[in-house]
Backbone:
C-alpha cells in the first residue's frame, strides 16, 4: 500500500471527527490540537509502521506523544544549563555514560530530572519499535514481507545490506525515530495551522481552492504525490505560505572549519571600506534569517510582504531565479539547504496537501471572535490566549456547501 493511502486514511478519521462536531451547525474547534494529532499519527503509520492515536474524541494519549509534546517546553527551561553547564561537563570527558547519568540525578534541577524521564520514555518505546522491526527483518531473510514499507523499515533494510563501514550503529537508527517524529510534528503542524488561518482570513482564496479540489476529485478521489503537485492553486497556497510564514524564521549554525562567506553585494564596514566577503572562523555560531531570504524585496519585488498564492502560477522574477538561493525547495530557505537540509520536505508537502485536499472539500473554515496571535520564539506557534501561555488555534468550522 503506498504511503499516500496512509496519509488519507488518517485524514479521513480527522474529517469524521469534524463532521460529528459540526453535525448541528458551525462549531468552534481547536484546529491546532486536531491537526497536530493527525500529523503525529501519519508519521507513526508511514514512518514506523505503528499507530499511536485513533483520532477520536475519547482516547488516552500515547506515552510517546505525551513525552514528545513535553520535550520542547522542558528543554527551553534548560537553555542556560545547556549553554553554560553542559560545555564544562563535556570538557571533563569521563567517557562513562553511567557517570554522566549519576551527575544528572544528583544535580538539583526538577526540569533536568523531568527531561531525563521524558527521554527515558521515548527511548524505551523507540527501542521496542526497533527490536520488533529487527525481528521481522530477520524472519524475512533480510527484507520485510509486507507490501507497504514505512520509513524505518526501509532504513533498516538498507542498513542491513550495507557494508560494515557504511552501516549505522543500532543506537543511531533508534535515534532516528525521535528525529522523524519532531520533524513531522512541530514544523508541519505549524505550517498547516498557518495555511488554515490564512484561508479563514481570505475566504475568496478558500473558495477558489475548494473549486480546484472539487474539480480534481472528479478524476481522482485519492491523488498521489504527482497528482497533488499538479494542482497549481493548491501548490501556490502552500508555497506562498511557506515563503512568507516559514515555521522557523531564524536558524543558528556553527562552522566546522574556517570559511570565507561571499556576499551577494558589497557592504561598507564601519571604517568605510567596502568588502565582498567575510572570514568566518571555525566554531563561530552564525544566525541565518530564513524569513529575510524568503522576503527580500530586492528579489521578490515590492509586494514581497503580501500573501499572494497566485504569484506561483506565473514565472518568478528573474532576480529570484538568478540569486541562486541554496535552499532545497523552490528558491526558498524554508527547508534550509546543504548537508543539513530537511530530508523530509517532500513527506511534509504530501502530508499538508493531503490534509488540505480532504478538509477544504468538506468544510468551511472561518476566524473566531478572539484574535489569534503568533509567537515567534523559535517555532511559529498560534495562540488565542492573550497571555500566549497555551498554544491553540480555534477556528469556526462548518459544512462546506
Residues:
Amino acid at each position: 500500500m503506498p504511503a499516500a493511502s496512509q496519509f488519507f486514511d488518517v485524514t479521513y478519521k480527522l474529517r469524521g471527527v469534524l463532521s460529528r462536531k459540526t453535525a448541528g451547525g458551525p462549531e468552534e474547534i481547536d484546529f491546532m490540537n486536531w491537526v497536530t494529532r493527525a500529523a503525529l499519527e501519519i508519521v507513526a503509520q508511514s514512518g514506523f509502521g505503528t499507530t499511536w492515536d485513533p483520532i477520536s474524541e475519547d482516547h488516552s494519549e500515547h506515552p510517546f506523544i505525551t513525552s514528545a509534546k513535553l520535550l520542547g517546553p522542558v528543554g527551553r527551561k534548560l537553555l542556560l544549563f545547556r549553554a553554560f553547564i553542559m560545555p564544562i561537563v563535556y570538557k571533563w570527558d569521563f567517557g562513562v555514560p553511567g557517570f554522566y547519568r549519576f551527575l544528572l540525578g544528583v544535580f538539583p534541577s526538577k526540569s533536568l530530572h523531568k527531561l531525563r524521564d521524558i527521554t527515558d520514555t521515548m527511548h524505551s518505546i523507540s527501542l521496542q519499535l526497533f527490536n520488533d522491526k529487527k525481528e521481522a527483518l530477520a524472519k524475512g531473510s533480510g527484507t520485510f514481507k509486507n507490501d507497504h514499507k514505512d520509513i524505518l523499515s526501509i532504513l533498516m533494510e538498507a542498513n542491513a545490506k550495507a557494508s560494515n563501514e557504511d552501516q549505522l550503529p543500532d543506537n543511531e537508527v533508534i535515534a532516528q525515530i525521535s528525529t522523524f517524529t519532531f520533524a513531522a510534528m512541530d514544523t508541519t503542524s505549524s505550517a498547516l495551522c498557518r495555511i488554515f488561518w490564512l484561508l479563514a482570513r481570505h475566504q475568496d482564496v478558500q473558495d477558489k481552492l475548494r473549486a480546484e479540489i472539487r474539480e480534481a476529485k472528479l478524476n481522482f478521489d485519492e491523488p498521489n504525490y504527482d497528482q497533488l503537485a499538479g494542482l497549481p492553486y493548491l501548490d501556490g497556497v502552500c508555497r506562498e505560505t511557506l515563503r512568507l510564514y516559514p515555521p522557523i524564521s531564524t536558524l543558528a549554525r556553527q562552522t566546522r572549519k574556517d570559511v570565507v562567506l561571499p556576499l551577494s553585494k558589497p557592504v561598507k564596514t564601519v571604517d568605510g571600506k567596502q568588502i565582498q566577503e567575510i572570514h568566518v572562523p571555525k566554531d563561530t555560531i552564525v544566525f541565518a534569517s530564513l524569513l529575510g531570504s524568503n522576503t527580500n524585496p530586492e528579489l521578490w519585488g515590492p509586494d514581497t510582504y503580501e500573501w499572494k498564492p497566485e504569484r506561483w502560477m506565473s514565472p518568478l522574477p528573474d532576480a529570484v531565479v538568478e540569486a541562486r538561493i541554496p535552499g532545497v525547495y523552490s528558491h526558498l530557505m524554508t527547508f534550509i539547504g546543504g548537508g543539513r537540509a530537511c530530508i523530509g520536505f517532500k513527506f511534509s508537502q504530501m502530508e499538508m496537501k493531503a490534509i488540505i485536499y480532504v478538509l477544504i472539500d468538506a468544510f468551511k473554515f472561518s476566524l473566531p471572535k478572539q484574535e489569534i496571535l503568533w509567537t515567534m520564539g523559535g517555532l511559529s506557534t498560534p495562540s488565542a490566549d492573550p497571555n500566549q501561555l497555551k498554544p491553540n488555534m480555534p477556528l469556526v468550522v462548518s459544512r462546506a456547501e
